[in-house]
Specification:
three-stranded antiparallel beta sheet, single chain
């Protein structure tokens, strides 16, 4: 067998460079038979009664801890219903909420720790092997610290932010650590990481390198937004107040961190740069055709971001529906439709290539109008005065620019008037328009101004030929 590449302490790239200085023996490759050997060892260990009793005792301790916690917490919630409110809290936890969260989260690991500790003491009294019980106590301590850390985060930061990072970053990291500890009880992780999966472009890809690349990329990409926020807060703080400039810096920092992290992870794993270049070159044509739309949206997002034509909070019209921009992403933009409060994901290419109406480009002032008809018997001047009075009494209608009223034409049964008014919040135009229509109707009724119905004259003619035919049949 050849010694593994990782035992030499050189990556494939370093090995190629070192060959110029000295000739080293060709690395040995472990095969998957090692896994089968290790599994046989695990089976032999698990057949020992003392080991089985230890694992059974730990399983009973865990079950007992969760059962006692569930029962006791149910009794506390029945007696003190206010304790359960911290679970629905969306802001930072208060003092009593922090205490309730401590009881809820630390009771289970505390009970598990006590149960396994007592079991270990009993094994020591009997002179039995307690190695796995000691490792179980370590895991219980890690779980206790993990729960305490989470509760502390809920006390310091808003619950929605903590929950997002707990599900995507903190919890997977803890469970991965716990899984590694459990596997180390049975397997030699160092040798397991040296198992070769494939040989790629003259380089060996081991199980350890594949794990580092997969886990490293996941945790780095998920944790980059958190690292980005920390860097912005540390180096910029409150110095940068312009939203657009802050968004541009945030975008550049985020993707720079992602690119740097990917390079470092592949370098740490010892991936051959030649292999990456070959794979990238071979897939470039397929990526160019298959991801054409994605690249187009990406470039469009960059242009929209740097031009500043759209920003978060803008009111725009998409497919004749008024919407509010809630998130301007690098691939797509999220908007909230005012009409039904739904959200739409719009590719940036659509915003970049189509005509989009914005109500908040230079300012948020928007002009709307209400058209109404009045009887010919009424004075047009008086109608205009009433329309202006109604608009000026509406609190949402701006005084500057001031509302205007016009007589716009002679209709079939009425004189048509138009009331134009300005508001500074486009999302409430339907509310303001509805209130104005109701106020206009009431003002017309108070001043005996009629809003006439359409009138039509119907003339009936008789046909002489039809009359003759009808008489003939009679």
């Amino acid at each position: 067998m050849k010694p593994p590449l990782s035992s030499i302490g050189l990556s494939t790239a370093n090995l190629n460079r070192s060959k110029k200085k000295e000739i080293m023996p060709e690395p040995t490759v472990l095969n998957l038979d090692f896994l089968w050997t290790e599994l046989l060892k695990v089976a032999i260990v698990l057949q020992r009664p003392v080991v089985q009793i230890q694992f059974l005792g730990m399983a009973v301790s865990i079950l007992l801890g969760y059962s006692v916690r569930k029962w006791s917490w149910t009794q506390l919630r029945r007696r003190f219903p206010v304790l359960s409110r911290y679970e629905m809290e969306r802001s930072k936890l208060s003092g009593w909420q922090f205490s309730a969260a401590l009881i809820d989260n630390l009771l289970t690991p505390t009970l598990i720790l006590i149960a396994i500790g007592l079991l270990k003491i009993g094994f020591e009294q009997w002179g039995w092997f307690t190695g796995y019980l000691s490792d179980g106590i370590k895991l219980a301590v890690y779980l206790w610290c993990y729960r305490l850390f989470l509760v502390s985060l809920y006390a310091l930061f808003p619950s929605n932010s903590v929950s997002r990072y707990r599900e995507n970053l903190i919890a997977p990291l803890f469970y991965l650590l716990a899984l590694g500890i459990v596997l180390s009880w049975f397997l030699d992780l160092q040798k397991l990481s040296e198992v070769t999966l494939i040989e790629l472009f003259g380089g060996l890809v081991t199980l350890g390198e594949a794990f580092v690349i997969t886990a490293g990329l996941y945790f780095w990409i998920v944790g980059t937004p958190l690292l980005e926020k920390l860097l912005l807060k540390v180096f910029l703080g409150r110095k940068l107040q312009a939203p657009r400039a802050k968004q541009i810096i945030s975008f550049l920092l985020r993707y720079s961190l992602m690119g740097l992290g990917i390079i470092l992870i592949f370098g740490y794993a010892g991936v051959n740069p030649t292999a990456i270049a070959a794979i990238t070159g071979g897939l470039s044509v397929g990526i160019g055709f298959g991801l054409k739309e994605v690249i187009s949206n990406f470039v469009s997002g960059i242009w929209l971001l740097f031009e500043g034509t759209l920003k978060e909070g803008d009111m725009i019209a998409i497919d004749e529906k008024m919407s509010k921009v809630t998130k301007l992403g690098i691939r797509a933009t999220t908007v909230q439709v005012i009409e039904d409060n739904s959200e739409e994901i719009i590719p940036n290419q659509t915003l970049f290539t189509q005509n989009i109406s914005t109500y908040t480009g230079t300012n948020e002032l928007v002009r709307y109008s209400v058209i109404v008809g009045a009887s010919y018997e009424c004075s047009p001047t008086r109608v205009i005065e009433i329309l202006l009075q109604v608009a000026q009494q509406q609190p949402q209608v701006l005084r500057d620019p001031s509302p205007q009223a016009f007589a716009i034409g002679f209709g079939d049964s009425s004189i048509d008037f138009e009331l134009k008014f300005w508001i500074d919040n486009p999302s409430i135009f339907k509310i303001v328009t509805s209130q104005l229509i109701c106020d206009i109707w009431q003002a017309f009724a108070d001043n005996n101004i009629e809003i006439p119905y359409p009138q039509r004259d119907l003339h009936l003619r008789s046909d002489v030929r039809l009359e003759g035919q009808s008489e003939r049949y009679i």
